[in-house]
Design brief:
Blueprint (H helix, E strand, L loop, with lengths): L24 H8 L2 E5 L5 E5 L2 H8 L4 E2 L32 H10 L4 H25 L3 E2 H6 L1 H11 L6 H12 L5 H24 L5 H8 L4 H15 L1 H15 L2 H9 L4 H12 L4 E6 L3 E3 L2 E3 L4 E5 H5 L33 H18 L4 E2 L21 E3 L4
Helix pairs in contact: 4-6, 4-15, 6-10, 7-8, 8-10, 11-13, 11-15, 13-15
Bound molecules: protoporphyrin IX containing FE.
Protoporphyrin IX containing FE binds next to helix 10, helix 11 and helix 15.
């Protein structure tokens, strides 16, 4: 066993002027202690894993559980109180066989036909929002005008949420994601969302349509409580992530004009570009597992019951796996990136998220060839205070044609 460092909190400080780089200390830890003791916000002493190889090893290992009643939250403000079991339907925080059962029912709903129809809607929704931006004229906040409404509408489309109801919904979801909102406010927002979802489930039971929630209502024996919670999971997982990838992705391309020029010159580069943006930006700080038994990992003994945080940004910038990892290079091979996680909990919505980015990013730059920041780069407000990294706002401008 190797000598370990004293437990420290998850590194969070990013270098000034480097909005696209992960917290600096992650690189030092990855080099010197790819598994190191970590002090969790609730006082638990667990571990932080930072190398690509170890991150994937943990996520693929059934001795590490994702159960909500076993894991300690690595992020302050993310979850308060003692760990407790996941409510019915919150499969993200369950292990097999419960996780497997829900996951199968859900993957069965992401049919080729439904994905094809959604892709068509993504093109339409993107074009509608670019039209609205053009009508409004510069400057606009790209987050508000483009990055947030597109995934929000797409997820509403997927679940069959009436689009008229999405505004209140978006605001409640943002509260749940915030690290600064009080527990009381979060409980209130959660209550509103649950009530909304339950109403939606009951509406689908009464009158099923051709959407995912209706498919689950008619094709499975899931209870209203399970369906309500599953709807909440998809909403929560699906829109802020993609919204931040769209906006931070656009910002990163504006900050790397030669890469943007390459993308503009070759639309065939789009799919690779999206994967590289996912790797380079790694907007999710990581995920956590708990050891079900004593496990030796990277020369350290992880004791049964200890939590292990795996850092997605650290893994995706590991020079042992990606050459010159701190450079945004749209042509590079990105195989093995863990922006969508790895193993049995790997992102269920990744194909949908990919299509949204593959459609949205090139369409944005094609519509506004002179798009640029409307403020100096150091005035772009970064989401260093949120669970999902990105920008709060992205003021952009362009020359009117
Ligand atoms: C660019 C956008 C996205 C990113 C970066 C992202 C990232 C991730 C990551 C890293 C995980 C693994 C979490 C873990 O292991 O603890 C995950 C899981 C998940 N994602 Fe995404 N996601 C995105 C978009 C979406 C969308 C659009 C949806 C829904 C339509 C979605 C639904 C889910 C669900 C349900 C899970 C849990 C799967 C499970 O536990 O089996 N995600 N996502």
């Amino acid at each position: 066993m190797s000598e370990s460092t004293a437990p420290a909190p998850l590194p969070a400080a990013r270098k000034a002027g480097c909005p696209f780089d992960p917290p600096e200390d992650l690189a030092r830890l990855r080099r010197d202690h790819p598994i190191s003791p970590m002090a969790y916000p609730d006082g638990h002493i667990g571990w932080l894993v930072t190398s690509h190889a170890l991150v994937r090893a943990v996520l693929a290992d059934p001795r590490f559980s994702h159960r909500a009643d076993l894991t300690h939250s690595p992020l302050s403000g993310a979850r308060t109180g003692a760990p407790r079991p996941a409510p019915p339907g919150i499969f993200t925080s369950m292990d097999p066989p419960e996780h497997t059962r829900y996951r199968r029912l859900l993957t069965g709903q992401f049919t080729v036909r439904r994905m094809r129809r959604l892709t068509g809607r993504i093109h339409e929704i993107t074009a509608e929002h670019l039209d609205a931006m053009e009508r409004q004229g510069p400057p606009v906040d790209l987050m508000e005008a483009f990055a947030l409404p597109i995934p929000s509408l797409v997820i509403c489309e997927l679940l069959g949420v009436p689009t008229t109801e999405r505004a209140g919904f978006q605001s409640d979801m943002s509260k749940l994601m915030s690290l600064e909102v009080s527990t009381d406010e979060k409980i209130a927002a959660f209550g509103t969302l649950q009530a909304f979802m339950l109403d939606l489930v009951l509406a689908k039971r009464a009158e099923p349509a051709d959407d995912l929630l209706s498919g689950l209502v008619t094709g499975t024996d899931l209870t209203d409580e399970e369906l309500t919670n599953i709807g909440g999971v998809l909403m929560g997982a699906g829109f802020e992530t993609t919204a931040n990838m769209l906006s931070l992705g656009a910002y990163a391309l504006l900050g790397h004009p030669e890469q943007l020029a390459a993308l503009r010159a070759d639309t065939g580069l789009t799919d690779k570009a999206v994967e590289e943006l996912l790797r380079y930006l790694s907007i999710i700080p990581g995920t956590v597992r708990a050891a079900l038994e004593d496990v030796e990992l990277g020369g350290q003994l992880v004791r049964a019951g200890q939590s292990v945080m795996v850092s997605i940004p650290a893994a995706n910038r590991d020079p042992e796996h990606f050459a010159d990892p701190d450079t945004l290079d749209l042509h590079r091979p990105t195989a093995g990136h863990v922006a969508f996680g790895h193993g049995i909990h790997q992102c269920l919505g990744q194909q949908l998220a990919r299509v949204e980015m593959q459609v949205g990013i090139p369409a944005l730059f094609a519509r506004f060839p002179t798009l640029r920041l409307a403020v100096p780069p150091d005035e772009v407000p970064l989401r260093t205070d949120m669970m999902i990294y990105g920008v709060h706002r992205l003021p952009v401008t362009w020359d009117k044609g």
